[in-house]
Structures are given as structure tokens and as C-alpha cells.
Amino acid sequence: MIGLPFGGEPGASECSRAGCRVDAAWRIEWRNPKIHDESRRKVWVACDEHVGYLREFLAARDFPLEVLPLSAPPSTAALPATAASPAAVDPTASSPTTSSPTEAAS
Q: pLDDT for 17-46, tens place per residue?
């Protein structure tokens, strides 16, 4: 599971940004359209500080993505064939933000 160190507690989530051990508040669902079909989603989790960085990392590579609060139910909709225009992630917003890709271990 992403963000859990070896021996970590199930359900605990740490930011996927390299070196960050802060609890995640966001889930970034993405895919690489060159190797994944539209139904495949990979997930990174992010803290408030790194959600924008990770989203921009993925967006720069034109990966379709969706940014959701960590507590939101998993999305079942297929990600589009191309990335949406990069939108700023507002951690105070009550609705999910759709945008493009980020960095972390997949």
C-alpha cells in the first residue's frame, strides 16, 4: 500500500512525496495512457503541502488524473484519454478538483 512503511498500520497513509512522512489528506488517482487503458487507475496520496507538487508532476507528463479528498470513496469512472487542464488544488475546497499528474513511487 502506498505511503505505508514496512510494518505500518493498516489504514494509515503517509504522503507519497519522497521523504515526506506527514499524514495524507488527498488522493491523486492517475494513469499513464501509454501503458494503461481508461479503466486503470493508480493512486498516490498527498499531504496538504505536497498535493500541488504531485499533481503538477503528473500534469507535466500529460497523465489524466483526479485529485480527491482522502476520505472520498474511490472513483469508479474511467479517466479520460487525455489530461484535463491543470487546475490549482485548493485543500480548503469542498469539492474534488480534476487536473493532471505528479511524483512519487508508483
A: 999 999 999 999 999 999 988 888 999 999
Residue appearing with cell numbers 482522502: 70
**Beta strand ranges found along the chain (DSSP E):** 26-30, 42-46, 65-69, 97-99
Cell readout for 4 is 505505508
Q: Residue 83: which H helix or E strand, with range? A: none
Nearest to 87 by CA among 54, 52, 42, 45: 52
Whole-model pTM above 0.90?
no
Domain boundaries, the chain: 1-106
- How would you classify residue 79: left for phi > 0, otherwise alpha for psi between -120 and 50, otherwise beta? beta
Average pLDDT over the chain, rounded to an integer: 74
Q: What is the pLDDT of residue 48?
A: 97
Other C-beta atoms lying within 10 Å of the C-beta of residue 7: 5
Q: Report residue 32 CA to chain centroid gap.
A: 13
What stretches of the chain show up as alpha helix (H) in DSSP? 51-59
